[in-house]
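Hi V.,

Quick status before I head out on leave. The structure for the redesign project is tokenized and pasted below; the design run finished overnight.
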């Protein structure tokens, strides 16, 4: 992995890009008016572009980059602000002042909804295994402007933790978060946005195991929630109570803490 600037960088852009490369522990390469494809061919590497508006992550040979965008979260936020029900918030039992840990952060769509629901007195943290995705999403949550003030504030309140979910959970205290949440990549295909498709190119697939669930139960104060394809065997294998949704391609599974004591 290497990092470069936008096509026409100023001194500020160059300094920001160099600092980001140092922080990530990767090589900084001057752009020199080259295309991303030319740089990747010459360097034989994936590439992060530190642009003036956003960060982009290119897999070698791909034309479309991964970049942070709140995706469908903007539409969901507008519905929530209008007090329309959201099945995710219902499944996670989130309200003002509660705490939420997203073990599969991705583009942070669910964490943004959670942050709005728990408000400034609550806490939302998300775990992302890929260090480059974590860096880009963390930057995007801080700098993206959605045009919805409540959403922008919710994004800024999210804490991003880089690492594997199991390792992070092992180092957390008992009953640390009200809800611990998983949204693993579906094993069965569901039509996805371009943002999700490019994310999958860099996603780290952490095994979903009994140890992972047991650690999640220990860390959860109230419940563990799993979002997965409606045909997923994980719901049965790990004894989740399924919140079925008619005609929906995915369901939410719930494990209440009291039922696991």
């Amino acid at each position: 992995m290497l990092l470069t600037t936008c096509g026409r960088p100023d001194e500020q852009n160059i300094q920001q890009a160099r600092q980001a490369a140092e922080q990530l522990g990767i090589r900084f390469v001057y752009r020199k008016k080259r295309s991303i494809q030319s740089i990747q061919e010459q360097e034989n590497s994936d590439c992060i572009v530190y642009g003036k508006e956003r960060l982009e992550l290119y897999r070698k040979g791909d034309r479309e980059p991964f970049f942070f965008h709140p995706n469908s979260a903007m539409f969901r936020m507008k519905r929530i602000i209008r007090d329309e029900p959201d099945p995710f918030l219902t499944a996670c039992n989130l309200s003002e002042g509660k705490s939420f840990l997203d073990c599969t952060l991705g583009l942070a769509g669910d964490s943004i909804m959670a942050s709005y629901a728990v408000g400034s007195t609550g806490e939302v943290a998300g775990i992302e295994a890929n260090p480059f995705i974590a860096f880009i999403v963390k930057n995007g949550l801080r700098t993206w402007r959605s045009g919805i003030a409540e959403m922008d504030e919710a994004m800024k309140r999210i804490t991003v933790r880089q690492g594997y979910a199991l390792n992070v959970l092992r180092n957390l205290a008992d009953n640390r978060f009200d809800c611990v949440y998983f949204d693993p990549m579906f094993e069965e295909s569901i039509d996805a946005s371009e943002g999700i498709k490019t994310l999958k190119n860099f996603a780290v697939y952490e095994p979903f195991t009994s140890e992972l669930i047991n650690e999640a139960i220990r860390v959860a104060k109230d419940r563990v929630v799993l979002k997965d394809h409606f045909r997923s065997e994980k719901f049965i294998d790990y004894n989740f109570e399924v919140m079925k949704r008619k005609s929906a391609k995915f369901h939410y599974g719930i494990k209440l803490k009291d039922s696991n004591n």
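Above is the designed sequence. Residues 7 and 33 are 6 Å apart (CA to CA).

G. will cover questions while I'm gone.

Best,
W.
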